[in-house]
Design a protein that fits this description.
Two copies of one chain form a homodimer. Chain A is of the alpha+beta class. Helices cover 27% and strands 30% of the residues of chain A. Chain A has five helices and nine strands, in the order E-E-E-E-H-E-E-H-E-H-H-H-E-E. Chain A has helices at 59-71, 106-111, 132-149, 163-174, 180-190; strands spanning 14-25, 28-38, 42-47, 50-52, 77-84, 95-104, 117-121, 193-199, 209-213. In chain A, strands 1, 2, 3, 4, 5, 6 and 7 form a seven-stranded mixed sheet that branches. The first copy, chain A, has a two-stranded antiparallel sheet with strand order 8-9. In chain A, strand 1 and strand 2 form a beta hairpin. The longest helix of chain A has 18 residues, at 132-149. The radius of gyration of chain A is 20 Å and the shape is elongated. Chains A and B meet through strand 1, strand 2, strand 4, helix 1 and strand 5 of A and strand 1, strand 2, strand 4, helix 1 and strand 5 of B. The first copy, chain A, binds a DNA duplex through residues 162-164, 179-182, 184-186, 200, 203-209.
Chain lengths: 225, 225
DNA sequence: GCAAAAGTGTTAGGTATACACCCATGC
DNA sequence: GCATGGGTGTATACCTAACACTTTTGC
């Protein structure tokens, strides 16, 4: 590879990051959006949080920094999605953006309140700013894929959860109904979750047993669904 | 998202692409490498072909251009792998690189001859320049994953191939032995390949029937292996 | 005729699916 | 006592995995 020292004229593009953050509440999938108001091209449309990468940080650093600064989210599960480099993806400037997927627990969605950012149920999605429509489609496809062969579901649930809640994560994202008995058999056979010994409280029906994932980190699995 | 017009100081990084190109010949997986000689950090080590992204092109455009110009490969299957943004990944400059995976047919590997580029059997890999060790590991993991649930194998075979050759693609990359009868049953049941009616020629044993993929484009499948 | 790879079915075990009722709790 | 969701087992169909011999060709 004959790489020259990058001359000034080649450092033309701004590098950015954007994050598609998913959360489930009330059996509905939501994404975190901010209002974008950059007329004439992008006037009052939702867009995903993000921002430029700085000289002293990696893309991962940048996405964490922007999420903390702009929408007050930190410590969430993030993974790289895809890099978007179409010339006109931001019609104002040439910006190449590294897209990320994030997942948060239901409490984060419920308790969240910050400025111009809000949780949009995916059923109400219309048109995003920039190329964020494409980014959303890729993020959702990736989330669906990963759900089936990894433990990514753990980041969409509280630390302790019922088996029904776990099942609902799959049903909501994959848009299918699953058989309760078969789902439990399969999940328990995988040996990835454990009973905590505690029970649900404050429900007006029979309280469910609470479970937790054995590992805090994402694992690969044989296909679940 | 409050994105400012990117000031000069934010356009610090050079954007590059690199490609990990795989090919199988003689039941061995190979990757295409070029010699990198950039002392003191990278002295006579193999590295993957690539180069900078220019103002007027996307990352996809750039990787195609560099492969054509530098190693005389064009029209091959390429897909985006991951974006590498570690501050010191190129110890000479800050360069963020979009990594790609590529696949070529056995003829390309066999007939190939160009300057300082050559096909390295993966069993002989030692140390790559830059962060290309990490890039290689991710590329191989991705190739293994995709092999099982897509038709990516088609890009590692000639247009017409025998069922044994197809099986060998799986065996070489997944490092497993597969049962011939079961493999054939499974592949044929997927309805992704068709008999061409032609037979192998010039072999000193019983000639095998030649098959071709029904579609030229990559498809998703239920898991094969 | 012999070396080399092609081609071809069956069986057994395991996995996935379909399915319905009783239980514990709050009100 | 009733409404709500929690929790549990079995039978069947399907799929997967294991396994060996005959065929065709070149030399």
């Amino acid at each position: 590879m004959t790489m020259k020292k990058a001359p000034e004229e080649l450092r033309f593009a701004a590098m950015a990051v954007d994050a598609v953050i998913f959360g489930i509440v009330d059996k509905k999938l939501h994404v975190l959006v901010q209002n974008v108001n950059r007329p004439p091209h992008y006037a009052n449309m939702p867009g995903f949080p993000g921002g430029l990468i700085e000289k002293t940080e990696t893309a991962e650093d940048a996405v964490e920094r922007h999420l903390t600064d702009k929408v007050h989210l930190s410590g969430i599960h993030l993974e790289q999605l895809y890099t978007f480099s179409d010339i006109d993806r931001d019609r104002r400037n040439r910006v190449i953006s590294v897209g990320y997927i994030g997942c948060v627990t239901p409490e984060v969605v419920t308790q969240y309140s910050f400025d111009d950012a809000h949780w949009l149920p995916v059923s109400k999605i219309k048109k995003f700013a920039y190329d964020h429509d494409e980014m959303y489609q890729m993020a959702l496809a990736r989330l669906r894929g990963k759900l089936s062969y990894t433990t990514i579901a753990q980041f969409l649930l509280s630390k302790e959860f019922t088996l029904t809640q776990l099942q609902e994560v799959y049903e909501v994202i994959l848009k299918t109904e699953l058989d309760k008995r078969n789902f439990r058999k399969k999940i328990l056979a995988l040996d990835i979750i454990k009973e905590t010994g505690r029970m649900q409280e404050g429900v007006k029906n029979r309280p469910a047993a609470l479970y937790a994932f054995k590992s805090k980190s994402i694992k690969e699995l044989p296909p679940i669904v």
